[in-house]
Automatic annotation (TrEMBL):
Keywords: RNA-mediated gene silencing. The lineage of its organism: Eukaryota, Viridiplantae, Streptophyta, Embryophyta, Tracheophyta. Residues 13-23 have a biased composition (Pro residues). The keyword Oxidoreductase does not apply. Pfam families: ArgoL1 (PF08699), ArgoN (PF16486), PAZ (PF02170), Piwi (PF02171). This is PAZ domain-containing protein. Transmembrane segments: none annotated.
Length: 663
């Protein structure tokens, strides 16, 4: 990104070149050096060849000399207070684009929602000051919420917008990268293109979640209880690959609140049928800051709370004119009577509280049955493990369905019609990137007694096989969280199967059952109480704890149990929920236990030497993997996260050490 001073006031033209020295000789400018990839011995021929497609779409840039100009944006209200909300910022900039199009030379811009906007080419000036007036239809309350009797007025808010030139972002580094030449700072131009995609999705009415675009389409909503709905969308961003620049498009999902009547949402959220059984304390926390639309006047409001009294007992002051209209007096009236006098039917609201959609010092009460939740309101609270698993399960698509969905999305978005992408002459193909792949045979593994273990039909059979490096387990115990399992029989079968695999397991020190009085308590309390039993029955810290859980998937006890054992006490533990105890199941459990106590990822097997990679065995080698993730455009408060993982104890390459850091 090239920084330029503000003294260039007309067109942001580049400065003239410096004069040549008297005895200097001009030199020919050499092209940037070619990017040389790491040399390899060949492309490989082993394996079965197959045709594959990737969710990337090829991009061509036909105007490599185009330049994005970045401008800083500062929005202030009439009282000189900075405006930082993304929603109001977008509305202000949209109004600015419509009102001052001639001052901006008719140029379109991409706004990141916070403090920056981007244009293709420069604006007429390096600094602007605009006054933007946003007008909103409001209701002038004259004692009646009835639309036929309500007087409409226009409320306007004035904002001062300052736009100043900040930097130039050339598109040339991307063009060079597409040709295989060395290029720096491609990330700045890619970030601008991603912002253009986000702005285009916002204009379509999509919910923006980082780089995901969620559509407001009831046909793709999937309800999974608790008043929550899975909503499908797409995750899209531009990336540079060895094949060139391409947008990576994939299917994504997020959880939103079920749109519709507020009363129906509360009943579904608390799994009730009778509105009189609603816990209004929980309801107030759930509804706070949500947006609703009132049925009687078709206006949108933001919920700040729930009234303390029922609708037929909640009074508020109402200004009314006398019969002759000469004087005005204030009377106290209930919310129920107010709407009943206006012939607005409230069949279920008399004994229910009201929604407060006003301000802290000036409440505005609306009956529940007149309000409906607006669509695409994201569920931001922490979801349970069951809800997350349900979201993943119901969002899964078959390959052909996923391919068809992604291709249709690229065609429907019509990226080529975007004015800013047109100015750069960026065109996107409508078909997935095709390439050739190879399927390798499963590696031959070595187990105990120098025996080979070969995969058959995609499965490894460990019957009558011994572990490569078996361990000994002396101090251990079994705990049972009220699961229907005979832990005495489980311990006997585990010891028998372990000895057949080469693991010597002593009898458990204790078999601990959960106290029945804590079965209905929360997961954290259940774990704490059971761990108190472990401390009381064992003379010291055990070497290993086997935990039997009551649920096979997404058990709430799993997280607190792992935390107290691994993080606080440093005790190795293995959780299981057996449905059928046999040698195959116990072998899988023993492999995990042997791996955890032996500090090896896969202590059962050893990968045999691969002829094509002799250096892994002959020379001490380390295999490294690295990745960095960044926040989406416009989210300056999201840190970058870097992770590195490296292999240990070569040539086994089955022990790893990982490290994660935030910026």
């Amino acid at each position: 990104m090239e920084k330029v001073g503000f003294e260039e006031t007309r067109g942001a033209l580049p400065p003239p070149p410096p004069p040549l020295p008297p005895h200097g000789r001009p030199e020919r400018l050499t092209e940037p050096s070619k990017c040389v990839a790491m040399s390899r011995t060949g492309t490989g021929r082993s394996g079965r060849r197959i045709n594959l497609v990737a969710n990337h779409f090829k991009v061509s840039v036909n105007v490599p000399d185009a330049v994005f100009f970045q401008y800083s944006v500062l929005i202030k209200s009439e009282d000189n207070r900075k405006i930082e909300g993304k929603g109001i910022g977008g509305k202000v900039m949209d109004k600015l684009s419509q009102t001052y199009s001639s001052e901006l030379a008719g140029k379109n811009f991409a706004y990141d929602g916070e403090k920056a906007l981007y244009t293709v080419g420069s604006l007429p000036q390096t600094k602007f000051e605009f006054t933007v007036v946003l007008e909103e239809a409001a209701v002038k309350r004259s004692g009646s919420p009835d639309p036929k009797r309500t007087k409409s007025s226009i409320q306007s808010k004035t904002y001062n917008v300052e736009i100043s030139f900040s930097a130039r972002i050339p598109l040339k580094p991307i063009a060079l990268a597409l040709k295989g030449l060395k290029a720096d700072n491609t990330g700045d131009a890619l970030r601008v293109i991603d912002i253009i995609l986000r702005q285009q999705a916002a204009k379509r009415g999509c919910l923006l979640v980082r780089q995901s675009f969620i559509h407001d389409d009831v046909r793709i909503f999937i309800s999974f209880g608790g008043g929550l709905t899975a909503c499908h969308g797409f995750d899209s961003c531009f990336q540079t690959t060895l094949c060139g620049l391409s947008p990576n498009m994939d299917v994504s999902s997020t959880m939103i609140l079920m749109p519709g009547p507020v009363l129906d949402f509360l009943l579904t959220n608390q799994n009730l049928r009778d509105p009189r059984q609603i816990d209004w304390g929980k309801a107030s926390k759930m509804l706070k800051n949500l947006r609703v639309k009132a049925r009687h006047n078709n206006m949108e409001f933001k919920i700040i709370g729930i009234s303390e009294k029922a609708c037929n007992q909640q009074y508020f002051p109402l200004k009314m004119r006398s019969g002759d209209g000469s004087t005005e007096e204030t009377v106290e009236i209930t919310v129920y009577d107010y709407f009943k006098n206006r012939n607005i039917d409230l069949a279920n609201s008399a004994y229910l509280p009201c929604l407060d959609v006003g301000k802290l010092k000036r409440p505005n009460y609306l009956p529940l049955e007149l309000c409906s939740l607006i669509s695409l309101q994201r569920y931001t609270r922490s979801s349970s493990s069951m809800q997350r698993a349900s979201l993943v399960e119901r969002s899964r698509q078959k390959p052909q369905e996923r391919i068809r969905t992604v291709i249709d999305a690229v065609k429907n978005y019509r990226y080529d019609d975007d004015s800013m992408l047109k100015a750069c002459n960026i065109s996107i193909e409508k078909q997935l990137t095709a390439f050739e792949g190879r399927v390798f045979n499963a590696p031959t593994l070595k187990v105990g007694n120098s025996e080979d273990c070969v995969s058959r039909s995609g499965r490894l059979n460990f019957n009558q096989k011994r572990l490569l490096s078996p361990i000994q387990i002396k101090r251990w115990a079994i705990v049972n969280f009220s699961a229907r399992c005979d832990i005495s029989y489980l311990s006997q079968e585990l010891i028998r199967c372990g000895r057949s695999k080469g693991i010597h397991i002593d009898n458990p020190y204790s078999l601990i059952e959960e106290d029945s009085q804590w079965r209905r308590a929360g997961p954290v309390v259940r774990v704490e109480k059971l761990f108190e039993q472990v401390k009381a029955k064992l003379p010291g810290p055990p070497e290993f704890l086997l935990c039997v859980l009551p649920e096979r998937k997404n058990c709430d006890i799993y997280g607190p149990w792992k935390k107290i054992n691994l993080h606080e006490m440093g005790i190795v533990t293995q959780c299981l929920c057996p449905t059928k105890i046999n040698d195959r199941y116990l072998t899988k459990v023993l492999r995990k236990i042997n791996s955890k106590l032996g500090e090896v990822m896969n202590s059962l097997v050893e990968v045999k030497c691969i002829p094509t990679l002799p250096r892994l065995k002959e020379t001490p080698s380390m295999i490294l993997g690295m990745d960095v993730s960044h926040g989406s455009p416009g989210q300056s408060d999201i840190p970058s996260i870097a992770a590195v993982v490296g292999s240990r104890s070569g040539p086994l390459i089955s022990r790893y050490r990982a490290s994660v850091r935030t910026q």
